[in-house]
Amino acid sequence: MAGHSKWANIKRQKARVDAVKGKVFTKISREIIVAARSGVPDPNANFQLRTAIEKAKAAGIPNDNIDRAIAKGAGKLGADGAALESIRYEGYGPGGVAVLIEALTDNRNRTAADLRAAFSKNGGNLGETGCVNWMFEQKGVAMLSFAVTESSRRRERSAATLQLDEDALLEASLEGGAESYEITEVEDTPAAEVFTQIENLETLSQTLKERGYSVDQVELRWIPQNTIEVTDPDQARLLLRLMDALEDLDDVQTVTANFEMAEELMSVSMA
């Protein structure tokens, strides 16, 4: 599993204070506004909007907030969000780690200045457009979760059982046009991520649902084509601090980096 994915999983397991949840609400609401503005404001006819709404519901955003964001994107509540634009930024973290950032902003100068400050304070630097983009490939990702009964927690799952589960997942994934999948865990619950071409994500998601899988979320994600192994504790601490600083910025939607790091080192560095 890519280092960034491990890092994201560990962060998901940490308790979130209300202030942080508020930031999550803001980021997802912005996604809804842009999705509603870029297509029809009807989730049934706009996959990007439907995806953003599903993400909002998973994050616990109230329906009233979701409806207001859709209305803003559709221009029914004034010009809110009309100036938002998607911008991709690129840079280097400690040790030459490549960092790709996607932002939604109404002020390019402010966003660039905030990013530059976050990089410089944490051993990195904001680069020029195209400096690291070639190291990543964008894919569609469907994230699945699997219910675990109390009895299955008590007994050790055999290799045969795991293989049978993977066979079924492989069959469903191939039917949906997937390229690959990865077994993982989210908060000690079995999960999987299924990868496909961007234009096939809606088909994959629908196929998996029809086959009875619980599709928690679908998204577009940048996947690193090569990785840098981080083993030095000081570098690890600085790198994870940079990732946190970038994600905490209001205009930043996603941060992806091409590092690999042992979970033990990651846990200690984030403590």
Helices and strands, with pairings:
Blueprint: H1 3-13, H2 18-38, H3 47-58, H4 63-73, E1 76-79, E2 85-92, E3 98-105, H5 108-121, E4 125-126, E5 136-145, H6 150-154, H7 159-175, E6 180-186, E7 189-196, H8 201-210, E8 214-224, E9 228-230, H9 233-247, E10 252-257, E11 259-261, H10 263-270
Parallel strand pairs: 9-11
Antiparallel strand pairs: 2-3, 2-4, 3-10, 5-7, 5-8, 6-7
Helix pairs in contact: 2-3, 2-4, 9-10
Strand segment tally:
11
Overall, the morphology is globular
Classified in CATH, the superfamily of the largest domain is YebC, transcriptional regulation domain
- Name of the CATH class of the largest domain: Alpha Beta
| CATH topology type of the largest domain | Alpha-Beta Plaits
What value does the Rg take, in angstroms?
19 Å
Query: Average pLDDT, to the nearest integer?
Result: 83
Summarize the structure.
The chain has 271 residues and is of the alpha+beta class. The protein is built from ten helices and eleven strands.
Describe what this molecule looks like in 3D:
By secondary structure, the chain is α+β, with helices and mostly antiparallel strands. The chain folds into three domains: 3-79, Arc Repressor Mutant, subunit A, CATH 1.10.10; 86-135 and 225-270, Alpha-Beta Plaits (2-Layer Sandwich); 137-223, YebC, transcriptional regulation domain (Alpha-Beta Plaits, 2-Layer Sandwich), CATH 3.30.70.980. The protein has ten helices and eleven strands. It has helices spanning 3-13, 18-38, 47-58, 63-73, 108-121, 150-154, 159-175, 201-210, 233-247, 263-270, and strands at residues 76-79, 85-92, 98-105, 125-126, 136-145, 180-186, 189-196, 214-224, 228-230, 252-257, 259-261. α2 runs antiparallel to α3, α2 runs parallel beside α4 (63-73) and α9 crosses α10. It is globular, with a radius of gyration of 19 Å. Residues 12-19 and 149-164 have low confidence and may be disordered.
